[in-house]
Write a structure and sequence with these properties.
Number of domains: 2
Shape: globular
Oligomer: single chain
Structural class: alpha/beta
Length: 451
């Protein structure tokens, strides 16, 4: 049996980043991937002739972002789309009140001002919160202090709930009071008209990646690690585990000996959220040409709250909406037809007699995906930001972890996956790796003909 320098488990963004860096340094690396494709939770569906990003979509904030630097260095085209941060204002948004009526500019301006006021109070309540406080606790305290009318309080409460669900995939009462502390967006956000998975696929080009290799056991030995899969065993001096937190929480992989509490504790304490996408195409646009988002407030938006215009990717009128948290888990048990009918019914409440019959749709069910068991991590009650970074290990100097759940500064993002892969590679090699040189190496290989 061949003994490698490092076995990387998972060919998502963190896994291919680390593997590429180790391979560039001359290490003998193999990547074991359970799926039949590279990218993990970066999954672009091109079956319709244009890209549909079923997984990650955005770079959340391009200012001072090494991820954005990589995208630019590789010449990957992007479109500015700055509402992935769930803004109340700042971009053209068509707002509808609880009765489904379009809000005029004055009403919209007052709505944005009220949310900003409540957010300021919320920040104060989070600062003075106690251990064990949930985001729901601090939200209610802020709303109690707001002085807003009861109906407006209900609308802001609904807005905050949906914001938590979109950002974390969790119910507001399950999220720690500090769960959105690291959610600041610096600069514009962008999406990818050619599909986001171009990034991990280009990084991974030329690596030894074994698809369809489901890892079942990782044993730490005197010689390093032995990794068991349904396709046989592999040995190496190091292993880097980059599977999603949901897989670790499900104990789909046996660790022998068991993981120490320094790593096992964060796995148990952190939460794994569910965030599902519903893309629907229509024969004609029934919303304004310049609108980024259609948003229903209050009762009208209890389930389907926001629709994002992503028509620019395909050139066909397309809206993207989300089902996250508890609603996202319930939605997964419905048929595609039931989901689409419910979304269209909600839109017709806002646009009577204007919504045509859908021509196509795409629906995700990440919570039912055995190789992710959810969408991304969040700060559950009882966990802390330190848990993210502690999860990275290493264990016994031979077992490392990477992925969005292991990066405390901005978990649940592609940036976190990229940076954690970089950190893991540096720890395994015992030296620093320049990200600009890393990007230059990818483009240089692409210009060099295969021998």
């Amino acid at each position: 049996m061949t003994t490698y320098d490092t076995i990387v488990i998972g060919a998502g963004m963190s896994g291919v980043t680390a593997a590429r860096m180790l391979d560039d340094a001359g290490a003998d690396v193999i990547v074991l991937e359970a799926r039949d494709r590279v990218g993990g939770r970066m999954h672009t569906d091109r079956a319709a002739g244009f890209p549909v990003d079923r997984g990650a979509s955005w770079v959340h904030g391009i200012d001072d972002s090494p991820l954005w630097d990589l995208v630019q260095a590789l010449g990957i085209p992007t479109l500015e789309y700055t509402v992935g941060s769930f803004q109340a204002g700042g971009r053209p948004i068509e707002n509808f009140d609880g009765e489904g009526r379009a809000m005029d500019p004055a009403s919209t301006s007052q709505w944005v001002a009220d949310v900003e006021q409540a957010d300021r109070l919320l920040a104060e309540e989070i600062t003075r919160s106690s251990p064990g406080d949930t985001y729901l606790d601090v939200t209610e305290r802020a709303l109690d202090r707001s002085g807003l009318e009861p109906e407006r309080i209900d609308e802001v409460r609904e807005f905050f709930r949906h914001r938590v669900e979109e950002q974390c995939g969790a119910w507001v009462g399950d999220l720690d009071a500090h769960g959105l502390d690291e959610d600041a967006i610096d600069g514009d956000e962008v999406i990818f008209p050619r599909g986001y998975d171009e990034l991990p696929r280009r990084i991974a080009a030329g690596l030894d990646i074994r698809l369809g290799h489901v890892v079942t056991r990782i044993e730490r030995t005197d010689r390093g690690v032995t990794v068991s899969t349904r396709n046989g065993e592999f040995s190496a001096r190091n292993a880097l585990v980059t599977v999603p937190l949901g897989v670790l929480k499900a104990e789909s992989i046996e660790f022998a000996p068991p993981l120490p509490d320094a790593v096992g504790g964060p796995i148990a304490r952190l939460g794994m959220g569910v965030f599902n996408k519903v893309f629907i195409q229509f024969p004609e646009r029934f919303w304004r040409e310049d609108s980024y988002v259609l948003r229903a407030l209050g009762e009208a938006g209890e389930h389907w709250h926001s629709w994002y215009d992503v028509s620019a990717v395909s050139g066909i009128p397309t809206l993207l909406t989300f089902a996250a948290g508890p609603f996202g888990r319930r939605m997964q048990d419905l048929s595609d037809e039931e989901v689409v009918a419910d979304v269209v019914s909600a839109l017709r409440f806002l646009y009577p007699d204007a919504v045509g019959d859908p021509t196509a749709h795409w629906i995700t069910r990440w919570g039912q995906d055995e190789f992710s068991n959810g969408s991304y991590s969040h700060l559950a009650v009882g966990s802390s930001h330190h848990d993210h970074d502690e999860l990275a290990g290493p264990v016994d100097a031979v077992l490392h972890f990477a992925g969005e759940a292991t990066w405390g500064d901005e978990p649940a993002t592609v940036g976190a996956a990229y940076y954690s892969g970089h950190r893991a590679a540096e720890r395994i090699l015992g030296r620093s790796i320049d990200l600009a040189e890393f990007a230059a190496g990818i483009t240089a290989r692409e210009r060099t003909p295969a021998s």
